[in-house]
Amino acid sequence: MKDIILGVKDLSVNYKNKNVLAGVDLEIEKGKIYSIIGPNGCGKTTLIRAMSKSLKPKKGKVLLNGDDIFEMKSKEIAKKMAILNQNNTTMSDVTVKKLVQYGRYAHRDWWKGLNKEDDDITEWAMEKTFVANLKNRRIDTLSGGERQRAWLAMSIAQKPEILLLDEPTTYLDICHQLEILELVSKLNKEEGITIVMVLHDINHAVRYSDEVIVIYDKNIYTKGDSWSILKSQVIEEVFNVQTETIIDKESNKPIFYAKRVI
Ligand SMILES: Nc1ncnc2c1ncn2[C@@H]1O[C@H](COP(=O)(O)OP(=O)(O)OP(=O)(O)O)[C@@H](O)[C@H]1O
């Protein structure tokens, strides 16, 4: 039987009168990595926000380990789920260590302060994400890649079961993109954290996830492994580009490139 950590049922989201998602059903299995792809404005961020209770849907439910998130307290959700938004600009005037410590407040009341366990988990999170050597640096003095790792450290300091990432590689050069994706993959393998991330690079989505979720026309157009996404007409239909696919001998996974706009 499937072990579902996050279930989306008949989810519809509107912004004022504009309908962005209509009747989305989705099951996220514990321990897997999922990537969400789709054209600009198709509703990827909206889905992530609705799944994390940052946005109230017009209709439908989101179940975290079977519990309706709209009936759960934010703190209870934060103990199980962490979300890393696009272009985080808040809290840029604090040190890396302070930022990572904020992750622990999912488990503690802020007026009681942090204890030894929190200190240990803060250190662990910084080690895991390779920012321990930057702990006394302010966030606004870091490079894009370092900053993203610091935010990831804060997210895992929450000790979540599931991590939602909205475009974690945006603005990073190719080396730092891979560094973040390798790190996410490591957190999945070593810590068992379920990952759902929005990515624009289709080859990254295919390479780093167990399943790719394609959003198009207000709903999930298709969902499947790398072969089912790239060996079908999906990319052409959804992105309007003519594509060619080759096989990467090392990973035995397909790699595609977009040849021209259809
Ligand atoms: N706060 C808002 N108010 C009104 N419309 C919004 C709001 N946020 C998003 N939208 C609209 O909803 C649609 C979906 O937006 P969303 O950000 O979810 O798309 P996306 O797939 O993440 O896009 P991108 O790939 O460009 O990041 C877009 O048409 C967008 O303009």
From TrEMBL:
Residues 6-242 form the ABC transporter domain. Its main location: membrane. GO terms for biological process: iron ion transport. Transmembrane segments: none annotated. GO terms for molecular function: ATP binding; ATP hydrolysis activity. The keyword tRNA processing does not apply. GO terms for cellular component: plasma membrane. It is found in: Cell membrane. Pfam families: ABC_tran. It comes from the Bacteria. It is a peripheral membrane protein. The keyword Nucleotide-binding applies. Keywords: ATP-binding, Cell membrane, Ion transport, Iron, Iron transport, Membrane, Nucleotide-binding, Transport. Signal peptide: none annotated. This is ABC transporter ATP-binding protein. It comes from Paratissierella segnis.
